[in-house]
Amino acid sequence: MRYLVRRVGFLVIALWAALTLNFFIPRLMPGNPAESVIAQYHGRLGPGALKAIEAELGIGGHQNIIAAYFQYLGNSLSGHFGISTYYFPTPVVTVISRALPWSLGLVGISTVLGFLAGTALGAIAAWRRGRVFDNVLPPVFVIISAFPYFWVGLILIWLFSLTLNWLPTLGGYTETATPTLTWGFVGDILWHSVLPAFTILITAIGGWILTMRNNMITVVAEDYVKMARAKGLRSRRILWQYAGRNALLPNLTGFAMSLGFVISGAILVEYVFNYPGVGFLLLLAVNNEDYPLMQALFLLITVAVLIAIFVSDIATALLDPRTRNNR
Amino acid sequence: MNPARRLGRALFVAWVFLRRDKKAMVGVIILFILLVISAFPSWFTPDDPAAYAYTPGIGLSWAHPLGTTSFGQDVFSQLMAGTRQSVMIALVVGFFCTVLSVAIGITAAYSGGIVDDSLSLFTDVVLVIPTFPLVIVIAAYLKGASFWTVAFVLVITGWSYGARQLRVQALSLRNRDYLLAARARGEASWYVICVELIPPMTSLIVANFLGAALYAIIAASGLQFVGLANVNTEAWGTMLYWAQNNEAFSAGLPLWALAPGIMIAIFGSALALLNYAFDEVSNPALRPVVATRKNKKRAVA
Amino acid sequence: MTTPILEVRDLKVEYTTPAGPALAVAGVSFDLAPGEFLAIVGESGCGKSTLLYSIAELLTYPAQTVSGSVRFNGVELRSLPAEELRQHRWRDISVVMQSAMNALNPTLSIGAQLADACRAHTDWDDQQIAERSAHVLSMVSIDVAHLKSFPFQLSGGMRQRAMIAMALLLEPQLIIMDEPTSALDVVAQRSLMRQVENLRRELGFAVLFVTHDMSVVSHFSDRLAVMYAGEIVELGGTRDVFDHPRHPYSSGLMDAFPSLVGAPKELLGIPGNPPSLVNPPQGCLFAPRCPFATDECREFRPELITVNGRAVRCHLVNPRSAV
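Structure tokens for the assembled complex are given below, as produced in the milestone run.
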């Protein structure tokens, strides 16, 4: 339990760091982007509303920077992120909440699938050392994982969509269709998500296969695996309960850390496929200088990563009895 | 044995091992070729890469081996010219990231106590903050980052993973007898660190360098692709940006979009393969195993 | 003469190294009678652990058994198919390893690891498994409550005893022990050996015990085998070999141990290093270090010859001309 409390403490510090970054970066950049935000709102909002926005974003020369900082912290933690300039007058929170489910679905599922499949494949590759599976698989995936995500996406589009016409090119769903909760529409969504999901899967899985394989190889050389064989346990049981369980632990920590990397790739994949998720929104905001939206998205992505890390910490605590007591 | 010789020996051992490893050789050869191209691009560019002088929109042809862009630039020449940018960013970011990782990771491990605790906390926080979104945000505020800005941003976001790894290894070495002997002799701390602690960690440091370089090339090309870097260069990612914006695939110019991506992939693969090979150097258990009939039957019994 | 439960004939084990194959076990043969305690001693690297794991069919790359025969109760283990071999494990032959910290799965409780072995070989229900587990723990004086404990929660000595308890689970006929006392202090060592001896007397299993420290087994083993560079160089009754070693290496070893009784004597070491296993010498493997070596020793490899219950591999003890 103490372990989890320590981890929560750490994650809170990380969150604070992200908030602080978000606050100070625009103020450190040349051209003072913070001011330009106000300039964009100007003329579109009355002075009262303008003041409220200034207060929310902590901008405005009337306060000293420390007070503005704390006000910003307060506002962020209570979910006040201002109004989007590109999607004016929709509040940032609303804009984001429209895009969020798309990303959760696409990125969430393909990441989890990739992790599970990659871990299993890595374990099996290590278990069958010296045979074809292990000699071919790792180098192939080393190479594939070095490919840029977005390029893989482009190629898949070219192959499956433009040339073979099997799958759609862009978007989360056919533009002309109206979003309704019917099976047909759901099918349409799934149809559109195949290529982007596959892109993420294929590039991310390599990393997990490799780390799991390397961990497994180290673990399999340990005495307790030899002991398990001496006890005459069935091979499958040894693989999962003895070797796999112990090899998985460092992998879980690795999963959390590689999440940042996966999300980066997912942003580009959404961009390439015009998939209406959070990543696509971020780039849209960037290209249109919609700073409030951009800042809020950065925060959201950070929080998502922190939550994922926390989940993997819980999983580690469940699987590894050593963490429950001492650390 | 004096420290320079020890370092030299560590590198030599690694070199002998790598020579035998096919994957590593492939990686080294590719890197060497790319280095040559980036050092002397004019040798490899038949046409002026920037000139909009040629017939736009041709595919494979004798005059233009990879075709031309919609603007009439020769794709192959652009590709060669862009090599320098990509190689440079990988090397520069790789180098500075490694320097930072080594400095912070080893200082933390060697000092212990509160210095270690605070540095580790700092490292972990930086590690956890998602780098690419941060890079995007910063680049967005800068409205089109130059090479050095991109490099700077990548370095300050990319050092943390290596620092963590190096710290762990340095910790395990710290209490070895020969280090305690050095300190008992009264050697200065920096001497102990540079001369006794770092040489055994050489392969891990090299692996880190390769990893950072790989991260740099992928992140930089990502930035270029979305147009957040200077769009007037011939960098591979930027080529992809222009290709994407001009719908190269639909326009019947697939090579324009494929070629730069292939180059990134090749460069990245070379780095990744070498990284993989260096993993095997520092961890002998990972080295290739030859399966004999006996192994296969008994391996799981 | 009862049928031996273990018959090892000319066992050879090689390690694949970058410099070529290294012969770690160079043709070992011996018999083990039911209930007998055979100790195998030798310095580090002499191949004793390799021998043990080869017999137990637990070797992994880069080690492999290349020739020889291992018969357990008449059944040739080396040619058994994997599944049949698995059936023999633990029920007939169990293993106690050197470091219990490393030999126990850190993420499973002691009870779970005991239950593992039971479920793999019997069809006992949970109740029976729990009873049996509690029984073996009590045999090694560990509180039953520890069934729920994890390995890191036990002390070093307790972990070692837990391993022995695990080895006793299915009442095997043979227990193989690889230096189980090396990680313990002297007091714990003696206590463990006493416990093993009591259990052996009670349950009647045979023990194959490997150690580099002869004093540990000197009062417990029936027979003692001395190994050098992958060969058995002397084999005989324990007290006999101890008091009257005949092979030059064995007497060198005895001389290196101080004795509690008698006048203080000078401790002698054995100068030199063990031979290369990749390129072994042509003649006797010990000749380069032997103070009595002759030209004949350097040219011809001696055989292990048994005279009056004592096997010695030495030309000086068993001259070639007399054979």
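Chain A has a mean pLDDT of 78. The longest helix of chain A spans residues 235-273. Further analysis is deferred to the final report.
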